């Protein structure tokens, strides 16, 4: 989890998720289930069964510039 979340926070590229929409309009995860579970745990504030919280973290926002 650490490296994946770190990559997200630093704005590094991450592999995509592949979903298939089923006939009942639900989605089936073909690739990326572990990444989704990691995001879910991070959002809940749980890592390896232990509750955590972030402190002294700055959000860096990058803007993509359109080519001129």
Task: Provide the domain count.
Answer: 1
Average pLDDT over all residues:
81
How large is the count of helical segments? 2
Main sheet specs = 2 strands, antiparallel
**Approximately how much helix is present in the residues?**
25-40%
Structural class of the helix and strand makeup? alpha+beta
- Side by side, the strands of the main sheet go 1-2
Radius of gyration: 16 Å
The fraction of residues assigned to DSSP E strands is: 15-25%
Which sequence of SSEs, written as H and E, runs from N to C?
Answer: HEEHEE
Low-confidence segments, given as residue ranges, are none
The general outline is: globular
Distance from N terminus to C terminus (CA atoms, Å) equals: 38 Å
For the secondary structure, the number of strands is 4
Features:
single chain; two-stranded antiparallel ribbon; two-stranded antiparallel sheet; alpha+beta; 68 residues; 2 helices
What's the topology here?
Layout: H1 2-10, E1 18-21, E2 27-31, H2 33-44, E3 46-47, E4 50-51
Describe this protein's structure:
The protein is an alpha+beta fold and 68 residues long. The chain has one domain. It has 2 helices and 4 strands. Strands 1-2 form a two-stranded antiparallel sheet. Strand 3 and strand 4 form a beta hairpin. It is globular and about 45 Å long.
